[in-house]
């Protein structure tokens, strides 16, 4: 026995429809908002998810996701339209926008980043190293050797230094040591 599920029914107020149509037709509307507004408008015109997905060249699960999200938000949107009509457009944008993603957790602590900054401000000569200035690769190696981090890429060092606008490779150091000449005094 095949079970068919009914797609969420969507009804729009005149103002909601106007906002969605403007998004759908907008030449400067971001594509994701335009596509999602189009899905909602087609759903209110009686199309099922399969028809919308075919006509829009989208995966049926995408159509179902946005149709369901709108259906679950319909009551809140209607309430906003009644109580704060000026906030309706923003509420519709919010419903049709992607949810915030958590992203990858930070790998380096603020303390480790600060220690790398401190290291970059020190002269390699003060650490008895055989070079006159830091490169991102040399800083990465030195940070590992000093136990600041277990491992770090050159790119991560570069990001940290750029964030603090530090340029250790451009530090003002004399290429030739300045020698005081006692006869010039």
Low-confidence stretches: none
Query: What's the multimeric state?
Result: single chain
- General shape: elongated
Structural class: mainly alpha
Question: What is the helical fraction, as a range of percent?
Answer: 40-55%
Quick one: biggest sheet?
none
Percent range for β-strand residues: under 5%
Tell me the Rg in angstroms: 30 Å
Q: What is the strand tally?
A: 0
Mean pLDDT: 87
Q: Please write the string of helix (H) and strand (E) elements.
A: HHHHHHHH
Number of domains: 2
Helix count equals 8
Can you walk me through this structure?
It contains 8 helices and no strands. The protein has helices at 14-25, 31-44, 49-56, 60-83, 88-96, 110-121, 136-145, 154-163. The mean pLDDT is 87. By secondary structure, the chain is mainly alpha-helical. It folds into 2 domains: 14-96, no CATH class; 110-170, no CATH class.
Structural descriptors:
185 residues; mainly alpha; 8 helices; 0% strand; Helix-turn-helix domain-containing protein; Homeodomain-like_sf
Layout: helices, strands, pairs:
Blueprint (H helix, E strand, L loop, with lengths): L13 H12 L5 H14 L4 H8 L3 H24 L4 H9 L13 H12 L14 H10 L8 H10 L22
Helix pairs in contact: 1-2, 2-4, 3-4, 4-5, 6-7, 7-8
